[in-house]
Amino acid sequence: xxxCYSWWILSALSILGRTDWIxxxxxxxxxxxxxxxxxxGIADRPNDMADVFHTFFGIAGLSLLGVLDKIGExxxxxxxxxxxxxxxxxxxxxxxxxxxxxxKDSS
Length: 107
Hints:
Layout (H helix, E strand, L loop, with lengths): L2 H14 L7 H10 L18 H13 L2 H9 L14 H7 L11
Helix pairs in contact: 1-3
């Protein structure tokens, strides 16, 4: 398992409207286990060194899973949603006028 591959699979399933094919809670727990408690950031696997690449895709994955919404509610913060096609905040995608076809989730 690797956090960036979690993103690639999750984003593809999000585009296809099939996130119900995975256990979202277990995937979110895996990504959170990869977070460096001392220095921040997210590593490829638990107990490895965090890096920018895996931190980005880990946060993007947590956004798609809705985990950032829950964390934001607890902290009184709002986190921007990530677009599964472009891996950019959805407001940026809209502002740039980027278009992609995404299948609506069947669950």
